[in-house]
Amino acid sequence: MNSIEHKQTTKRKRIGIYGGSFNPAHKAHLNISNMAISRLELDEIWWIVANQNPLKVKSKDNVEFKHRFNSAKEIAKANPKILISDFEKSHNTYKTIDTLELLFQEFTTYDFIWIMGGDNFHIFHKWSSWQEILRKIPIAVFERPNYLDIENAEIYNQIIAHKSDNADELFNGNLPKWIYITGDSIDISSTEIRNKNPEWWENKNNR
Length: 207
What we know:
Helices cover 30% and strands 16% of the residues. The protein is of the alpha/beta class and 207 residues long.
């Protein structure tokens, strides 16, 4: 995990997994992470920088891993509970379901929860094995500007029965379970940054 050793402990730890391209990382990622740590009482949150997003393989916006990884490190340094990980790259995984399987194998004393923004919730049905992901890990969906109508998401009616209003319930009992968390959201996106500055890694001022 980005040269940081996560040693197994007898104490169970709550870990948020925030996966993404981080192309680039920005203040909204940090804001969601801060809320997740507070509202879900997480010990840490791990930003797993995607080796390659399967939904963006042919995208003209693909940027080298090192630039995306460094942008995550720069933004996340504001909170020591946020750790930046090259787990997917070092394990040569591309799909979330495969990454989760390896995480569960390596970190058996941790309780994981998947963190995502409302924008990704709207395309979650396009993820490989999304139903299996729901059966393996609880999910916390965070409000994002322009994606406030989560009830219109493709999968909403299929999973509404598993929605929880209690964060503690997410870590107990059977899955699937998910929660929707609202709060002060920041209106910025990686797409917006790239559109304004295609070579964003040369200029950090607008993130």
